[in-house]
Amino acid sequence: MEVVPLGSASEIAVLAADxxxxxxxxxxxxxxxxxxGSTPLPVYQELIRRxxxxxxxxxxxxxxxxxxxxxxxxxxxxxxxxxxxxxxxTDGLGISPAQVNGPDPSPAxxxxxxxxxxxxxxAAGGVDVQLLxxxxxxxxxxxxxxxSLASRTRIKTLTAQTRKDNARFFDSPDEVPTHVLTQGxxxxxxxxxxxxxxTGDGKAAAAAAAVEGPVSAxxxxxxxxxxxxxxxxxxxxxxxxxxxxDYYTEVYAAKPTWQGL
Length: 261
Ligand code: F6R
Fold this sequence. Notes:
Rossmann fold, 8 helices
């Protein structure tokens, strides 16, 4: 795991956009794994800014897979993750909606939604780079504490903490769905490169537990320690509770430029 302490959310956005663009430049038919929430927004804005300035790669061959989706919202709801990803990223990059996949929360299809989504990811050849945020309770995708470290895409119940954290996107806290379809931790671990980003002191404890704590279902994001290629980009506040912060800073400062992330 490579931990990169950075000065600000905008520095994270530049570096994360560099990583995503490098994958698409190297592989025109790249498969991108996308997260929603507030943390990735500066990254998405940076990618769209470069695309509009004709400085980005061609996205016409790219396929995307969303990490998760709310269950119980009307189809097309503006806070559905399918609508959010289109609005915040893929429409801006000119990626056709047909190339953007998400778990299918339609009520009649729920029992098979997980296995169908897994099959779609597999048929696309797997995810090349997966962008990830982290919940203040340590959740990864929507695998809440206690989730199996080997879990696959399935329905999960959000914790009260996560519903409270996400209430800002809705008119009232009661409107936050209780259930989601989420890639499992075992599913996430199959992506070739995992890029976790976290900003703000509300993420400091979860980031420290994920990076330096024991690998445990009590902190689902700690499962990242089992993956061979993980990059963790943190701003100063999110990095503030890391015991080995000085070491990570020293390692990144001395990193040979040819090595990349
Ligand atoms: C979103 C997702 C979640 C978020 C996490 C952090 O697709 O899977 O794990 O990454 O809840 O959300 P923000 O970035 O809003 O703090």
